[in-house]
Specification:
The structure holds 2 protein chains of 2 kinds. By secondary structure, chain A is α/β, with parallel strands linked by helices. Chain A has 12 helices and 8 strands. Chain A has helices spanning 7-10, 28-39, 52-57, 77-93, 109-114, 117-126, 176-181, 196-209, 221-224, 231-240, 267-270, 285-305; strands spanning 44-48, 69-71, 102-108, 131-136, 187-191, 212-217, 247-250, 253-256. Chain B folds into 2 domains: 3-248, 3-Layer(aba) Sandwich (Rossmann fold), CATH 3.40.50.970; 255-392, Rossmann fold, CATH 3.40.50.920. Chain B has a 7-stranded mixed sheet with strand order 3-2-4-5-7-6-13, with helices on both faces. In chain B, strands 10-12-11-14-15-16 form a 6-stranded mixed sheet, sandwiched between helices. In chain B, strands 1-8 form a two-stranded antiparallel ribbon. Classes of the chains: A alpha/beta, B alpha/beta. At the A-B interface, strand 1, strand 2, helix 4 and helix 6 of A face strand 3, helix 3, helix 4 and strand 9 of B.
Chain lengths: 309, 396
Amino acid sequence: MVTKLALKDLSHKPDLFAPGHRLCPGCGAGTIVRQVLLAIDEPVVVANATGCLEVSTSIFPYTSWRVPWIHSAFENAASTISGVEAAYQSLKRQGKVTEDIKFIAFGGDGGTYDIGLQALSGAMERGHKILYICYDNGAYMNTGIQRSSATPRGAETTTSPAGKVIPGKMQYPKDLTAIMAAHNIPYVAQASPHNWRDLMRKVRKGVEKGPAFLNVISSCNRGWRHPPELSIELSRLAVETCFWPLYEVEDGVWRLTYKPKEKLPITVWLEPQGRFRHLFRPENRHLIDEIQAEVDRRWERLLKLCGEA
Amino acid sequence: MREIMALDGNAAVAHAMRQINPDVVAAYPITPQTSTVQTFSEFVANGLVKTEFITVESEHSAMSACIGAAAAGARVMTATSSAGLAFMWEVLYIAASYRLPIVMLDVNRALSGPINIHCDHSDTMGAREAGWIQIFSENAQESYDNFIQAVRIAEHPDVLLPVMVMHDGFITSHAMERVELLSDEEVQSFVGEYKPAMPTLLDVHNPVTYGPLDFYDYYFEHKRQQVEGMAHAQEVILEVAREYEKLSGRRYGLFEAYRLEDAEVAIVVLSSTAGTTKAVVDKLRAQGKKVGLLKPRVFRPFPAKELADALRHLKAVAVMDRSISFGAMHNAGPLYLEVLSAQRIYGGNMPVVDYIFGLGGRDIVPAQIESVYDDLFRILETGQVERLVTYLGVRE
């Protein structure tokens, strides 16, 4: 029987992500992984791209993974899990494996938006029954906060410092979720750990319908520069400001899974984060206006795609 | 039923793959490997194999998918060439260090640049420290035989290392030859049912972590263990070869010695050029010249002692390299450097010289090989080595 997505029911399930890992306090990734593994009732095999999640949970001879888990390299989580899934299909056909097993890959935004994009695109196009989950913290946090193509415009990172001439990262983030939707795979969605029930529902759909892609915003207090206890709150604000809308594209149909009653101004999300502090100086205020305009433009476009406008 | 077929090298290996009937093949097209994968695709499309065939979007993903599938407990294969192998570089090391018995055909082709699709050995020589067992084949028959044996070598519990089998691009890959195939049943029973030696990812009741972060407190020990696998490989290669000889009647060793026993001078050369060299040896022998040939089959692990023992009685040796180790001693080739090291530790002190030849598919003709033997006899006469490294057939 499928476990109800209620705290009471979920609390009886074993935690497949063991404590004692070395992720930072307040890191979004660990919370996301626990929600993902709690959501699935079937046995799961996980592939992990190189990154914070991988290095913090698998320091030999310890492991936080109470499910079969493989890390191979940075850019190949999608192709690695596609090999695992192909082995499963082959061995199942031969009667050598009998269980119904689900396959998940985790990658950060660096491993997904950038270096792993080709492998991800290939795996999705080939139609493997897998769910790829990107925990998007908007920079290469594991190597020390370098900008990625997921880094928001204006953010200061160690390779896009806020200097006298260039005030942080100048490009808007790549819309990877839309790129994955353009693969016309059965299921693509965006989620946030603050809305755990929405996230877990999407995980369930993803593993059932695969190939599927789930993009999850994941706060990094070291990189975003905010107190660790604000981690989940900032995920919520990313959604309430429509910087990170919660939606899904199921069999080609776009649908908002949550619509803020009142769209909050982007400054509400920017201000608590040290990486945007320089934007609030008078000479950079115009950047905030531009960022707001881009958030609005993308939100309006999404509303249209979802038949809400 | 055993069959004798007219096959090129690539098709011969595709048939070996069909008969082995692996669980998963992940491959990407690249000249001159492509026809192997094309032929195998037909076997898949016609239901002749049980294989899950993954048509990946790159060689990096081909090897990554092989790693995932092998860790999941599947018998896994792939094939590539040149830039494809180079693109796999990072994951070649991972496959070896995770001790995954993946078998790969590499159809030898020059590395870019400039871009060139023809044969030399720079691709596999560049991968010689990746931790893979490397077996070179002279012709289509050898490639077929080596590929079948590779499965048993890779999967042997004392080895557990990936194996790459090579044949020469176009020269062997696309030239039709007479090939004797074993029956499907014979190959099946030779390779046997695959039983992974290590816990697999699909054993969901016994979760295992593959590829953890391994720091200065354990990495070194894991690398040391990897050396053990390579150290055991030589005996296993010979054991598998003995068993294969019983089945097929075809004998394989660490290398092939051709009219070497009473030779005064000899050439050491890999793959198809050894075939040409045999014809030259026969011609010169008919003229009463005591010449011989040593054709290494196994390059990794390098059979240093056995090779040095086989060469010890010679008065001069020429190694012929189809690649350059840029910046190495005298910019010599990798085979030369290995043979020379083996001589230093185990061998005599005869002169050993190097000939770089055939880069980018440049033809090597019998007259050139004859000139190498002439040079060796000149060394015997004069007692002088004029050049350690000679470029054979280049315009300078």
